[in-house]
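Summary for the steering committee. The consortium agreed at its last meeting that each partner would contribute one worked example illustrating the joint modelling workflow. Our contribution is presented below. We chose a case with several input lines so that the handling of multiple components could be demonstrated. No manual editing was applied between input and output; the record is shown as generated.
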Amino acid sequence: DQQVKQNSPSLSVQEGRISILNCDYTNSMFDYFLWYKKYPAEGPTFLISISSIKDKNEDGRFTVFLNKSAKHLSLHIVPSQPGDSAVYFCAASGGAQKLVFGQGTRLTINP
Amino acid sequence: GAVVSQHPSWVICKSGTSVKIECRSLDFQATTMFWYRQFPKQSLMLMATSNEGSKATYEQGVEKDKFLINHASLTLSTLTVTSAHPEDSSFYICSARDGGQGHTDTQYFGPGTRLTVL
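What follows is the complete predicted structure of the assembly.
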């Protein structure tokens, strides 16, 4: 049972435009959500997180939106830069310390 | 802050030998560390949760006797792959929770260790 789903395995965006990565979850006990960026053969890098008491969190070019009723979160990157090309994982936590990861979305920024 | 290191970054070993991978939190104390495994083009698979001073908690399907985890201090956890076989070849990544700042569920990851068993 995949509790966290990233339905788009890949996304291609032109440099300078907005990248929107989506994530859906099924477990209503999740109350903390994170986005990680990962390059090949490297560990994931923490990008941004959001608690379930909020619906938006912003950090520079990165904004995460949470829609609890739809059990959906999204990561917006604007403007997109070539260095943003990587695999992005969303993750969720329900207070049991463990993170549940989605399958990842490969983002490619085209010049 | 919140830097996690892993050593070695890659290792090649013969079948039947044991390999130890170290995970260190460099600028914070980590009461809890996690070990993941990633297969090519797949998501991270949690293997076990390691708590300082106590036995690790393994996920279903992970062999405790094959993947030995020790978390002897607040900054170091080790994963030993015993009697390694070619099917153990994978990318192993550790993470640590920084309970001192931010949300306690945020995990910071090490750079990973590529294990190849011949």
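The mean pLDDT of chain A is 94. The longest strand of chain A covers residues 86-93.
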